[in-house]
Design brief:
heterodimer, A: alpha/beta, 4-stranded antiparallel β-sheet, 14 strands, B: mainly alpha, 0% strand, elongated
Chain lengths: 318, 254
């Protein structure tokens, strides 16, 4: 299956608002797909439709080629692990009993699951509390247990709704590392409003705002595409670098700002003159007697792209 | 469904819902035989100079009293402990967690109903056995078959109330609404029976499973007369189950 998740013209309307508005999305197999948007953008609603908790007003969502409804079959669900934004478990069960229930519903045979469950609880620092009822767990503990329950059956598709939102920095690091390691082994659909998390672990990204998908792309391609947001270059020079580079602005050329530090020199221009800088920068530096050891275009980070995209949408609406 | 049933039994036991129900039933099983036996003496203590002539206590009176008390008080407790069965889990997110595992919506609901029905039957049967033995030791032997059939009949009657409460809990917005439906079902089962009890139709109404207890225990009414009401009760439960499962399949769990 090329696309474990496919969404076509998906719309979810409530009485007074449109939570998801004609969204199209394809999540490639084996990717860690960041589903990015501010709070209230429609991420959780989309995920609830994907998991069969609610139904779409129009359009359709497919998992492994099968259209999802509220009557989604257990066989299809066996291929999907889902972690809710605020995971809740049957409060009278212990963590190990929750893991046993997951193992049983996913059809894990024998006692192999038990060792695996213990390993996961250990990894998420829950083994000492494994026999405590989960009703007494903190939010962070429940989120870690949620990750463990998703990973236990090792389904080919994992849908994680803000999986690190309740964790401390250490827990957050561990969860993101775990997600990173899944790349290529499973498809991970990862919703978040924390751009740094998405940028760190995802290889594909979709940006949703006010129910509309604004962009879907490989993360690398997206960063390349938006290079124009910060037209300029980072240059590393072998000797007398910074003094020579500082002279660039004194000439009547395309450079509008130069900043240097111990690492190198950042040369900025305008979007209109970026092409001229691209063509002429090395020649100018060489003419000044500089030896260029590194030259790379400045790239915006995901946050800047996100803000640019959502600002553009606001502009269109106004 | 076995997984869901087991989970619900554990949940009911650990949250003290099922032991609480059993304790209420046991309380009446222990209360009614001595209170029937000593009722005349108790009344004499408060009567002063009044002469009270009461018929000698019969074992059937003690057991019928037990069934009546369970029908009244224990069914109220049953409504209270089952009104949040699904509604509470929809509110706190447990339903969403369970339903996003490889579990069908039907199995989730049926597991809940089955666990409560089993717990109610176990409580009523255990109470029935206790009351039967206690009655025997205090008042003399009672026919076993009618006592057993009436106990099971009470279990069946309570299961209608349970099924309605469960249905309202699954399809409604809150546990309170479900509790209201449960109480409403008690009245709906009772009102037509009280009007039609002397007609031929009355035999088919579920309430006759509990209203005829005294007559059946004394042998005035044959046990077989309860069969029409039992069949109607089973049919009612089946209708409620089918309706609930059908509606719940397309219900949105927010």
């Amino acid at each position: 299956m090329d696309y474990p998740i496919e969404i076509e013209g998906l719309t979810k309307e409530y009485r007074d608002n449109i939570a998801v508005d004609n969204a199209d999305l394809k999540v490639p197999a084996g990717s860690v797909f960041g589903f990015l948007g501010p709070n209230g953008a429609g991420k959780t609603t989309t995920i609830k439709i994907l998991t069969g908790l609610i139904s779409a007003t129009s359009g359709r969502a497919k998992l492994f080629g099968e259209v999802v409804t509220t009557e989604i079959s257990p066989d299809l669900k066996r291929n999907v692990g889902y972690l809710a934004q605020e995971p809740v478990f049957p409060p009278q069960l212990t963590a190990m009993e929750v893991m046993a229930m997951v193992a049983e519903t996913y059809g894990l045979q024998g006692m192999e699951w038990h060792d695996r469950a213990e390993g996961l609880l250990q990894e998420f620092d829950l083994l000492a509390a494994a026999n405590r009822r989960v009703g007494a767990y903190s939010r962070g503990m429940r989120q870690r247990l949620g990750m463990a329950t998703v990973l236990l059956p090792a389904p080919p598709l994992m849908i994680l709704d803000e999986p690190a939102s309740a964790l401390d920095p250490q827990g957050r690091y561990e969860v993101l590392e775990m997600v990173s390691r899944l790349k290529g082994e499973a498809t991970v659909f990862f919703s978040s409003h924390i751009l740094a998390d998405v940028e760190r672990v995802c290889d594909w990204v979709a940006i949703i705002d006010r129910g509309q998908i604004l962009k879907q792309s490989r993360l690398g391609n997206l960063l390349d595409e938006y290079t124009g947001l910060h037209p300029g270059y980072f240059v590393r020079l072998l000797d007398r670098g910074s003094e020579a580079a500082q002279e660039l602005t004194r000439k009547d050329w395309v450079v509008v700002a130069v900043a240097s530090d111990d690492n190198g020199v950042t040369v900025r221009t305008t979007a209109e003159q970026y092409g001229l800088l691209q063509e002429g920068l090395v020649a100018v530096l060489v003419a000044k007697g500089c030896t260029v050891t590194e030259l790379r275009p400045l790239k915006p980070d995901l946050e800047e792209i996100f803000l640019a995209l959502t600002a553009k949408k606001e502009g269109v609406e106004q | 469904m076995i997984q869901m049933l087991r989970r619900e039994l554990v949940d009911g036991w650990r949250s003290f819902r099922f032991p609480g129900l059993a304790l209420v039933v046991m309380f009446f099983a222990l209360l009614d035989p001595p209170s029937t036996k000593y009722m005349a003496e108790i009344l004499k203590m408060f009567a002063g100079d009044l002469v009270i002539q009461a018929p000698p206590p019969h074992p059937a009176d003690a057991f019928a009293s037990f069934l009546g008390d369970v029908n009244g008080m224990a069914l109220l407790v049953l409504i209270v402990i089952s009104m949040g069965l699904v509604a509470r889990e929809k509110e706190n997110g447990v339903a969403a967690w369970v339903l996003t595992r490889p579990v069908s919506r039907d199995n989730y609901l049926l597991g809940k109903l089955a666990a409560s029905v089993i717990a109610f039957f176990c409580a009523v049967l255990a109470g029935g056995v206790l009351c039967y033995l206690y009655t025997w030791s205090l008042l003399g032997r009672l026919e076993l078959v009618p006592a057993l059939v009436l106990t099971l009949g009470l279990g069946l009657y309570g299961s209608i109330v349970l099924a309605v409460t469960w249905s309202a809990s699954a399809l409604g917005e809150s546990p309170l609404v479900a509790g209201g439906w449960g109480l409403g079902s008690l009245f709906l089962l009772w009102i037509p029976s009280s009007i039609l009890s002397l007609t031929e139709v009355g035999r088919f109404l579920p309430y006759s499973l509990v209203s005829q207890a005294g007559a059946v225990l004394r042998g005035v009414t044959p046990v077989a007369d309860l069969i029409p009401a039992a069949l109607v009760s089973l049919a009612l439960i089946a209708v409620v189950i089918v309706f609930t499962l059908t509606r719940f399949r397309c219900l949105e769990i927010e």
